[in-house]
Amino acid sequence: MIIDSHCHAGKGDGLTGPWDADASLGKYLYRAATAGITRTVLFPAFHSDYAVANREVARIVARRPDRFYGFAFVHPERDRGRVFDMIKLAVERYGFLGIKVRRHDARITREICEVARAFSLPVLYVMGEVSVVELIAREYPEVNFIIPHLGSFADDWRAQLAMIDPLVRHPNIYTDTSGIRRFDLLQNAVRRAGAGKVLFGTDGPWLHPAVELVKVRVLGLPPHEEEMIVSGNFLRLTAGVRPRPKAYAVTAVAAAWSPGELRDPWSGCAVSFRLTLRTGRA
């Protein structure tokens, strides 16, 4: 079995580029089948309302549950206060197995991490600042974080090189192979962190799945290590997903953000906000 752990699907509602316009799977599915890829993890194209986008991906997954897995996309700021409800719906009704967050939208929050912990979900966090890996790894050791592209889709070799160190040191930090252009860095990451810390991904449908898979093949790994990358690691990270949240979930998520101000001590900028979490009581 070969699982592509990183692919987008559905329509966006923007016109910035393909990433927020359209993620049609037509060509991708043909190319993936030709390459021998049997399962694919889907998350939405970029969108102004991820609740809407997650529903569309859920419909795609429901039509082919033998072919697709789903991850729910959340926006750290726009979805503040409703992350628990969004993920509860995604897990209980859609059968989704993870959360995706994008730093370009906003920094990951404790609210998101607490929800991931409550459902034992892995979090795929697309980021541009490797330093935050230290924070999330230590603060949430029960949550597994997948930092795709070895930390940089923008081919920032400094960020990718820096990402290898926390990948080695933290047992809950993983990466994927999608979009990594500098093969020596991928090879170094696998050599130092081990095959158990890397997942195969393509960043489809925009990158060719067969081309992305070749990078794994030419690593020249023993069969059992290659199997870990192309399927085993993903299956292991999602095996413990809870269909119902842990008992403390509502309290923990509510405590993660309290009404008031968030201040960056170096920028002098404060942001006021109020968290409203539905608990089922009036």
Strand order of the largest sheet: 5-6-7-8-9-10
What is the CATH topology classification name? TIM Barrel
| Biggest sheet statistics | 6 strands, parallel
- Run of helices and strands: EEHEHEEHEHEHEHEHEHHHEE
Percent of residues in helices comes to: 25-40%
**Amino-to-carboxy terminus distance:** 48 Å
CATH level 4 superfamily: Metal-dependent hydrolases
Structural domains: how many: 1
* Poorly predicted tracts of residues: 270-282
- Shape designation: globular
Any idea what the CATH architecture is?
Alpha-Beta Barrel
Average of pLDDT: 89
* Count of extended strands: 12
Fraction in beta strands: 15-25%
Which structural class fits the helix and strand makeup?
alpha/beta
Quickly name the level 1 CATH class.
Alpha Beta
Instruction: Determine the number of helices (DSSP H or I, runs of at least 4 residues).
Output: 10
Tell me about this structure.
The structure is a single chain. Helix 2 links the parallel strand 3 and strand 4. Helix 3 packs parallel to helix 4, helix 4 packs antiparallel against helix 10 and helix 6 runs parallel beside helix 7. The C terminus is likely disordered. The radius of gyration is 18 Å and the shape is globular. It is α/β, with parallel strands linked by helices. The chain has a six-stranded parallel β-sheet. The chain has a four-stranded mixed β-sheet with strand order 2-1-3-4. Strands 11-12 form a two-stranded antiparallel sheet. It has one domain: Metal-dependent hydrolases (TIM Barrel), CATH 3.20.20.
